[in-house]
Write a structure and sequence with these properties.
heterodimer, A: alpha+beta, Alpha-Beta Plaits, 2 domains, four-stranded antiparallel beta sheet, two-stranded parallel sheet, 6 strands, B: alpha+beta, Pdz3 Domain, 4 domains, 48% helix
Chain lengths: 295, 549
């Protein structure tokens, strides 16, 4: 057998391999706990969740360093970003974000630029503070509810506590680890970013369901290791195609749309962790469970 | 090559989607429907090369037919209810096919014809407008000032965040119930109509916390006064000696003169000392009896001012407790039951034209609040997005490009993994057909595809490819006792389970965030449902066929 060697290797080390994801999960939880203590929330929120204004001006001729320096005096939390076309590299404008209300930042920017901002030369997005914090708590609630519904469905379908629990745990680990990395990168989450976590629940459970079905179905032939290996081949193809598609989309959209960039970044991080959590944690735990049951 | 019933279902779903997506007239639609169904029969009936050739020929003919018969003309997007064009029968949404005997295929044609027509306010001109619904003959001295747009080639509608436009989420100052929200929407809708903005969508939304909002959406360029128009309570009061004489709305005012030069005009434009201009306007309103008698009561005991021409107290006009103007009241009106009152005001600007436009806008705003009356609540704009249409086209191109590149990459990975051209091609075609079905259903239910919707489509394509890989791999597995049929049954179980978890996890999005992220949920659910029940079973059949060979 070609994979005789790997099998032996796998049988010997699969329990020890669990230390790695366990460690990462514990560190992530610890980091998030610390982060929450320090900043008062589990993520950095952008203006769509705290309230504030984003103005995008379609004028590629403006000196952004100067804008930043000049307007920062009155708007200390101001962030300025260039918007450019990935293919030509040409700057097509800039966007600026602040917690200030649109009525404050808009006149300041207009007097700085020396022309009026109209519906043609600019886009303005404003959210009030109370609405945004309402959105935030609702989206958090939606995310939690989604997770619980997903877990319920998994339990109902597999009707077997341990395997179901392992699937849900793997999805949980995906999300926790991804949030930790997003925080480490200093990404300010928007409402769209939270939606990305919703997408992540769907994506991450896919491979876990595949693995679990292949492993616990009695009609499946072959040894446990063989079934894991088969599932791994399928699952890795699934995840790799997703990573390729998301990666290339991220590259193309990077300097164009904040919303899509954030969604793709989060998916990319999450899909990476999904490989880790499905094929190390879920596979090893389930194998452990099944070996124990055999005896 | 016999088609299985699952393949038929997928084929029919695709045909229906295609004829829903493209904006072609119904006879062409029927023809395309017949041709495409014929192409399926060709596949079903004949064998080998012959069937494939016939299939491709019919496909190409249908494509040519579709691309040569898009609806042409310009569609009316915004038409003032007070204009002669509206009064003589023209309506929003009609598609203009010809103007004064000249064929109109696009906006360019339309404006070329329009330029050739000499309109001036003193002369009545005849307009012959043929639309898809009707032939209109309209006599007017007005310039056609409605907004037109090219008829779109597809029925796919993009959301404001892609196409450009404005969106305001408005919250009343106090908690209201559904009836209250409905009333608010009615008044606001009326106000937009009176003001002359008709391409406005107003709807009520509520969120998970039970807050109710009014969602106002305007497509295309953002109207300058949107903020004011949306959030203004519009409480109009006219006071003399601090006593209210009349208020805006039907209770006190029977008619407001507008768009009639005999009683609503810009009276004069003058230059200030600092070289800027100001223009005055005046229009007549007619009071109901009650208000007219109140006027008599309030003015009866007033004295005359120094000039002897006017009363000592002026008539003050307030909008939302802000004084907008004050008018002198002639002596001869003292104690009179007057039903006819002249309202005046002015607008200023750097140039004469600016001042003129400003005066016209002020007059329109004042007329609007006088006609529609006050809103029952004070309103606050809690969210206001105005998206420029400038980048919309670029953005859609970029998304399409990203999609194309992503599909090619996925195709390469699939081919490297399986080394089977037929199976890989079938996989890609299935993913592509899921996209077509989503677009078809979105066109059918007139869903506006916004950024969250596009994220949803991406999620569907992603999970779709995943599911098909599961099917392929189950079918590929060797050295096992179970038949290919059983293996595919297992694959479909995995897919179904993933589907149910996916749909369940999306449900909360319907309400969260006042439904602004609903698009993600809608497109994802349409897509994965079509995937699980239509395209992926058909794909499984195709793989069985390929595997069985």
């Amino acid at each position: 057998m070609e994979n005789q060697h790997t099998k032996n290797w796998y049988d010997r080390y699969y329990k020890i391999a669990l230390i790695l994801p366990a460690l990462v999960l514990i560190l992530s939880i610890f980091y998030l706990y610390n982060f929450t203590q320090r900043t008062g929330d589990i993520i950095y929120k952008d203006v769509t969740l705290t309230g504030g204004t984003t103005i995008t001006v379609f004028d590629g001729e403006v000196d952004l360093d100067k804008v930043r320096a000049d307007l920062k005096i009155n708007f200390p939390d101001l962030r300025v970003r260039e918007i450019s076309d990935i293919l030509t590299g040409k700057s097509s404008g800039f966007s600026l974000t602040t917690k200030a209300e649109v009525g404050e930042i808009r006149p300041a920017l207009e007097s700085y630029l020396g022309y009026e901002l109209t519906g043609e030369n600019s886009s303005v997005e404003f959210s009030g503070a109370s609405l945004s914090s309402g959105f935030y708590s609702q989206l958090k609630y939606a995310l939690l509810l989604s997770f619980l519904l997903m877990a319920a469905v998994v339990f109902v379908i597999f009707r077997d506590f341990v395997p179901s629990f392992i699937v849900v745990l793997a999805a949980f680990a995906d999300i926790v680890m991804t949030i930790a990395v997003v925080d480490m990168l200093g990404i300010q989450l928007s409402s769209a970013g939270i939606i990305a976590f919703l997408m992540l629940i769907g994506y991450s459970v896919d491979t876990d369901i595949l693995l679990t079905t292949r492993l616990i179905r009695k009609t499946e032939g072959g040894t446990i290791n063989q079934r894991i290996y088969d599932a791994l081949k399928t699952g890795m193809t699934m995840t790799l195609t997703s990573i390729a598609a998301v990666g290339v989309s991220l590259l193309l959209i990077y300097n164009f749309s904040d919303t899509l960039r954030q969604i793709f970044t989060i998916l990319l991080i999450g899909l990476g962790f999904d490989i880790f959590n499905t094929w190390i944690s879920n596979a090893s735990l389930l194998k452990w469970h099944m070996e124990a049951k055999k005896r | 090559m016999k088609l299985t019933w699952r393949m038929w279902v997928l084929g029919i779903a695709l045909i229906l989607s295609v004829i829903t997506i493209f904006n072609i007239n119904s006879s062409v639609k029927l023809l395309v429907l017949i041709l495409l169904t014929g192409s399926l029969f060709a596949l079903h009936k004949f064998e080998g090369k012959k069937s494939l050739l016939l299939f491709i020929i019919l496909l190409v003919v249908s494509a040519l037919l579709i691309f040569s018969s898009f609806e042409s003309g310009v569609v009316i997007k915004s038409l003032d209810k007070e204009s002669d064009f509206f009064k003589q029968g023209l309506r929003n949404g009609e598609i203009i096919k010809s103007l004064n005997g000249n064929k109109v295929e696009n906006m360019e044609d339309y404006f070329n014809v329009l330029q050739g027509i000499d309109v001036n306010p003193n002369d009545t001109v005849k307009f012959e407008i043929d639309t898809t619904r009707n032939s209109h003959i309209i006599f007017t001295n007005e310039t056609p000032n409605f907004i037109v747009r090219d008829v779109s080639k597809t029925n796919i509608q993009t959301g404001l965040d892609l196409r450009g436009g404005a969106r305001a989420l408005v919250q009343p100052s106090e908690k209201i119930n559904d009836a209250g929200l409905e009333e608010l929407i009615q008044i606001s809708r009326n106000r937009f109509n009176v003001y002359g903005l008709s391409d406005v969508q107003i709807s009520g939304v509520s969120d998970l916390q039970g807050n109710r909002y009014m969602l106002v959406e305007v497509a295309g360029a953002t109207p300058k006064d949107l903020e004011e128009l949306v959030s203004q309570q519009g409480k109009f009061e006219a006071k003399i000696d601090n006593k209210t004489v009349f208020e805006g709305g039907k209770k006190d005012i029977s008619r407001v003169c507008r768009n009639d030069a005999s009683c609503a005009i810009i009276t004069s434009c003058l230059q200030n000392s600092d070289e800027s201009y100001f223009c005055n306007f005046r229009f007549t309103i007619y009071l109901n009896e009650g208000a007219a008698e109140r006027h008599a009561d309030v003015t009866r005991d007033l004295s005359v001012d120094d000039t002897g021409q006017y009363l000592s107290e002026k008539l003050y006009l307030y909008v939302d407790d802000q004084e907008v103007d004050s008018l002198l009241v002639g002596v001869d009106l003292r104690g009179q039951v007057t039903t006819q009152i002249s309202i005046q005001g002015s607008g200023a600007g750097a140039t004469r034209e600016d001042a003129y436009n400003s005066a016209r806008e002020s007059m329109n705003k004042l007329q609007t609040v006088l006609i529609t009356g006050s809103l029952p609540y004070k309103l606050e704009i809690v969210k206001l997005d105005t998206i420029s249409p400038t980048l919309g086209g670029d953005f859609i191109n970029l998304i399409l490009m990203a999609g194309a590149v992503a599909i090619i990459l996925v195709a390469i990975i699939i081919f490297i993994r399986y080394r089977k051209v037929k199976a890989s091609a079938a996989l890609l075609l299935t993913s592509f057909s899921e996209l077509i079905i989503i677009l078809g259903v979105a066109s059918f239910i007139k869903w506006n595809l916004d950024l969250p919707s596009i994220a949803g489509i991406l999620a569907v394509i992603g999970t779709g490819v995943d599911s098909q890989i599961v099917i392929l791999d189950e079918a590929e597995k060797k050295n096992q006792s179970s038949s290919i049929k059983q293996k595919i049954k297992i694959a479909l179980f995995v897919i179904m389970t993933a589907y149910i978890t996916n749909v369940a996890s999306l449900i909360p999005l319907y309400w969260a965030g006042a439904g602004l992220f609903k698009g993600f949920m809608i497109t994802t659910i349409i897509g994965v449902t079509a995937g699980v029940f239509i395209s992926r079973p058909a794909f499984a059949d195709i793989i069985k066929r390929i595997g069985g060979e």
